[in-house]
Structures are given as C-alpha cells and as structure tokens.
Amino acid sequence: MGKLEEKVTQYAGELEKMGVAVDHDLLMKVTKGCGPSIYNKDAEKVSSSDKAEMETVKKNFLMTKMGQTDSEKCDAAMQRCVDKFGSSNPNKYRAAFYYMLVKDLGLESKY
Fold it and tell me: DSSP labels for 23-75?
C-alpha cells in the first residue's frame, strides 16, 4: 500500500468513526486534490478555530475549486462539518473535511 492509499484509509477510518458513509473512490479523488498538503503535519489538518483558515477553505476550495458562489451557503456547510467533527476535535483532516463539504453540498460531479 502506497502513502496515498494509507492516508485515504486513515481518513476513511476517521469519517466512519463519525458515522459518515464513505465513498472510497470520491475520498481518493478529494485526497489527491489536496496535493502534498496531506503529508505536512500542520497543513494536513483544518483549524476550525482560525477564522482566516476557514476563510481560506471557503475561498480557495469551495468558491475557486468547487465553483460555489453563495458565501452564506458555504459558511453553513463548513459549520455543519465542524459540528460533525466536534469543535474540540484536533483531527479535522483536510481531505476528510473537504470530502464532507463535497457530500454536504452535493458537489460529487465536480470530481
């Protein structure tokens, strides 16, 4: 098993712990889309308490990459993801967080 597959397995396990059904093909695509950030301890996770980081997720991922235009809808989806992870959970892995956003907003076709 390669490094990417190991990461996808790790993220799938985290999602399943939260009761999230995992589409492994989609999770693989989302994880690949995160690029090398998944191999950096700091960049691999989303800090939901950092407003600037949450703005970056919204602007760079949801609006630029996923083509979303409704800022409030993006904010609500991000909050649902934070709630699902639990605000005190330090393991909000970026790929899993993005996967949940894609599923929440019905953006699977973008991959």
Answer: -HHHHHHHHHHTGGGGGSTTTTB--TT-HHHHHHIIIIIIIIIS----HHHHH
pLDDT tens figures, 44-66: 999 999 999 999 999 999 999 99
pTM of the entire predicted model: 0.95
93 beta partners = 45
* Tokens representing residue 43 in the block: 């960049």
Closest to 111 in 3D by CA, of 35, 33, 46: 33
Vertex 67: Cα angle to 71 and 70 (nearest 5):
20
Sign of the alpha-carbon torsion through 20, 26, 30, 35: positive
Q: What are phi and psi of 96, to 5 degrees?
A: -70, -40
Instruction: Supply the DSSP symbol for 98.
Output: H
Mean pLDDT over residues 29-41, rounded?
Answer: 95
* Secondary structure class of 93 (helix, strand, coil): strand
